[in-house]
Recover the amino acids of this structure.
């Protein structure tokens, strides 16, 4: 597709459940980022992939959060044992190897009830 | 650690007028990029303008320009001839240019409303 695609757009889950959020980057973009945006805040860095490998996962808040990008294209953010505090918009972005402009998707709004 | 501060939570401007959004940052790095992103209600972040720290000349993109003061660590965005479509959240962001990681650090945003 022409832009970064994130699915689902919205996800409501019960506390304690497992969720997966998908990101389909722009074709040819080797860099991929996940961010979390809580209400009224700026995006907060979670993880950065260069190709298939996580080059920087220092923003993942705890071991319930995990992300993969097995073929260097689509990425999945996985959250285990969800908590109400995980409710936020999860943004994905991709860029060319020079990293000078990140293109963002429209995000997935996760609500944990 | 790098930090980005936007001290204006909300601003408003009349259509066709000029408005300036403020941003300051803190870093010990010398090689970095600064960005302004726009986030309309659709949630999608859109790049407005980018500044490379080693360039002294201020970046401009049509109605958008920046005032980059490297010594003061200030990076303000000026929007000229404001349009209703400029209504959105605006985020200032910093990216360190070094090998291994290129993460963006965002400020808390400024909500801009353009009034008809």
């Amino acid at each position: 597709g022409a832009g970064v695609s994130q699915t689902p757009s919205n996800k409501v889950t019960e506390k304690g459940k497992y969720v997966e959020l998908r990101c389909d980057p722009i074709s040819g973009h080797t860099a991929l980022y996940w961010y979390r945006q809580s209400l009224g805040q700026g995006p907060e860095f979670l993880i950065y992939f260069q190709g298939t490998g996580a080059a920087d996962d220092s923003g993942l808040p705890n071991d319930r959060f995990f992300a993969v990008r097995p073929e260097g294209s689509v990425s999945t953010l996985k959250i285990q044992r969800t908590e109400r505090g995980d409710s936020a918009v999860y943004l994905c972005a991709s860029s060319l190897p020079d990293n000078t402009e990140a293109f963002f998707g429209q995000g997935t709004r996760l609500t944990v009830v | 650690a790098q930090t980005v501060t936007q001290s204006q939570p909300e601003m408003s401007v009349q259509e066709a007028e000029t408005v300036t959004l403020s941003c300051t940052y803190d870093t010990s790095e010398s090689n970095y990029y600064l960005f302004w992103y726009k986030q309309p209600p659709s949630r999608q972040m859109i790049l407005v303008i980018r500044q490379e720290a080693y360039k002294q000349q201020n970046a401009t993109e049509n109605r958008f320009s920046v005032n980059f003061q490297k010594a003061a660590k200030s990076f303000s965005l000026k929007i000229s001839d404001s349009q209703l479509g400029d209504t959105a959240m605006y985020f200032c962001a910093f990216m360190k240019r070094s090998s291994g990681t290129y993460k963006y650090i965002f400020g808390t945003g400024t909500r801009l409303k353009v009034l008809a």
